[in-house]
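ok so I'm stuck.
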Amino acid sequence: MRSIHIAPATTELLGLLDTPSLLVRGDRIVFANPAALTLLGAHIEGQDVRLALRDPDALAILRTSEGGHVRVSGLSVSGSIWGLTSHALADGTRFVTLEDLSASASVARAHADFVANASHELRTPLATIIGYAETLSDTKAGCDPATRDRFLAIIKNEAARMQALVEDLMSLSRIEAVKHEAPRTPVDLIALAREAAGEVAHRASVEVVSSFSSAMVAGDRGQLAQVLRNLIDNAIKYGTPDIKVAIIITPTDSGWLSLCVKDNGEGIAPEHLPRLTERFYRADAGRSHQVGGTGLGLSIVKHIVERHRGRFDITSRLGEGTVASMVLPALSK
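replied:
not stuck anymore, here's the structure
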């Protein structure tokens, strides 16, 4: 095989790039920088480019004299997406770079799914409101007091459902806007837990359990209160008539603080647990709609806890209840 000379300065420069880069002459890869060797394998240097890439669109771009850009799927692992750019150099060599687009593509898909789900969730109660309002405009239905009251109650309930969803969507948007800003205000979790328990005293028995008088973290008091309200509300909504809720605050072995909201409800089947913090995921969709759930509560909780540099987890066993816990860094004294 004829030796092809590449200036040492060129290979040294390309070797400094974090972007996988290749030099291709004819159908042969004459140079691959360390990032490209890690991605495609150490054997590719000197190999036929058709064997290294195996993508018809990528190979078509490499055959053109002017170069171009194309998306390549599955180059590293199944499902990965890469952007391949080919630049034609004066001596006929092609300078090829590979950019990992998997993360941005995943974000784009998640955004599209979120918009579609939000639209569906809003469209359902809106269609109900429009339908019953149109029926009420009919003379017979509107003149019958019992029918009118029933229809108005349905419209009111569906409007409240839409309002709750819009509020949760706005809340999620606000949380994501500041997710990279770590909160720094001292917050006493025990005092916050007692306030949250007092707010629902008329609905359920909520006990605050802790072995010490204060538990300080650096946080956003409003957001942490929202976490407690969401977790307590879930425990009450999906619990049994004699539901008992306990908020347990304890130190961890690592010096962090653990806050658990524990109930004695029906529990959650294990197959649902990994997906409970996904937006709009519901373990029991029918019951969730019946009690006014938006499907965003636990997603909001997860985002808030992550903003506070903490961890959130849910454990549950059918017939034994559920424990939702967040672990946060304790504020140094």
